[in-house]
Automatic annotation (TrEMBL):
The keyword Hydrolase applies. It comes from Streptomyces spectabilis. One of its GO terms (molecular function) is hydrolase activity. SUPFAM superfamilies: Metallo-hydrolase/oxidoreductase (SSF56281). SMART domains: Lactamase_B (SM00849). This is Glyoxylase-like metal-dependent hydrolase (Beta-lactamase superfamily II). Keywords: Hydrolase. Residues 27-227 form the Metallo-beta-lactamase domain. Gene3D superfamilies: Ribonuclease Z/Hydroxyacylglutathione hydrolase-like. Pfam families: Lactamase_B.
Length: 329
């Protein structure tokens, strides 16, 4: 059961809005930065109703007279920025390459259709209803960033120094991480996931590892992942170890001639990462990794990848049901 996310203070002027996201798609963390009468958001939720909830909490925490002037969009996935239209008049900052990712991201209409117009008796329809059926995608107009950068951009929100670093391609072609040097906090976007398997659309994993190591190099106290609970440095080191292992597995399974989906099935059968949710997402990450190993420059076929994910999740779910029926009987 999903509980309402709350805005939690992490340090002076820094809050995180963290949904209970374990094993779920689309429930991303957002941030609020406030200093000297000015406020910025790090990402906005997937849908307008959820954004309204986040904004109400953010405005209450920021206090009267503090305007939200800036939205820092970590990357182009809808679950990090489809609420941007609700922050009227704010500057929307992201990397220049984020614009490229938006070109092949499904639209809100396409997502709604995958939830409503697919067959719930088939894996794809079942999977989309299960993971995206909670979201109301109506009324969303995807906003383009109003300010983009490459490399690094230094901003001030009130008197708070904010460093933006372009670390893509990693999770997508254009990923940004937000470093708050004074508070020793990093908002890592989907370069870091906690509790769930990653689903990296771009990769290769080596570049994701490099981005994580760059974050560690800033010696932060806290790292806010794109999804899941806030990590300390040891938590991030554990995540890097998993990324490295997955890259090693990808190389050897690719060399054995497996497809990404076969490789994902192999690692799931081995129960190689027992603590992480959504193992079917390895299909997506391994497909990105295999494209790099093949030196293929095609863009990911999102629908084909989601169909393979759905089949794995569907079969695991029917396996679980068969097991619980057997043990109940
Ligand atoms: Zn995300």
């Amino acid at each position: 059961m999903e509980s309402d996310p709350r805005l939690v203070p992490l340090a002076t002027g820094v809050h995180v809005w963290s949904p209970d996201a374990a094993g779920a798609w689309g429930l991303a963390n957002c941030g609020l930065l406030t200093a000297a009468g000015e406020a910025a958001l790090v990402d906005t939720p997937y849908t307008l109703d959820r954004t309204d909830d986040f904004l109400a909490a953010a405005r209450a925490a920021a206090g009267p007279g503090t305007g939200i002037t800036t939205v820092l969009t970590t990357h182009g996935n809808g679950d990090h920025g489809w609420g941007n239209q609700r922050v009227t008049g704010a500057e929307i900052v992201s990397t220049r390459r984020t614009l490229e990712h938006q070109c092949f991201e499904p639209t809100p209409e396409q997502l709604r259709s995958l939830v409503e117009d697919t067959d719930p008796g088939e894996p794809l329809g079942w999977y989309f209803r299960r993971h995206f059926g909670r979201f109301d995608f109506r009324g969303i107009t995807v906003q383009e960033p109003t300010r983009t950068f490459e490399g690094r951009l230094d901003l001030r929100i009130g008197d708070m120094p904010v460093e933006l670093h372009d670390v893509g391609p990693a999770h997508t072609v254009g990923d940004m991480v937000v470093h708050l040097p004074k508070q020793r906090i990093v908002f890592a976007g989907d370069v870091v996931f906690a509790g769930d398997h990653v689903c990296h659309w771009s990769g290769p994993l080596e570049r994701v590892v490099l981005a994580c190591e760059r974050v560690l190099g800033w010696d932060p106290d806290l790292v806010v992942p794109g999804h899941g609970p806030v990590l300390d440095q040891d938590g991030l080191r554990g995540h890097i170890a998993y990324l490295r292992d997955l890259a090693d597995q990808a190389r050897s399974l690719h060399a054995r001639g497996l497809t990404p989906t076969e490789a994902a099935r192999h690692l799931i059968a081995e129960d190689r990462y027992p603590d992480l949710h959504l193992p079917e997402r390895m299909v997506i990450t391994l497909a990105s990794e295999f494209r790099h190993l093949d030196r293929a420059d095609a863009e990911p076929d999102i629908l084909a990848l989601m169909t393979d994910c759905s089949w794995i999740a569907w079969q695991r779910d029917s396996g679980d049901q068969a097991l619980s029926t057997a043990s109940a009987g």
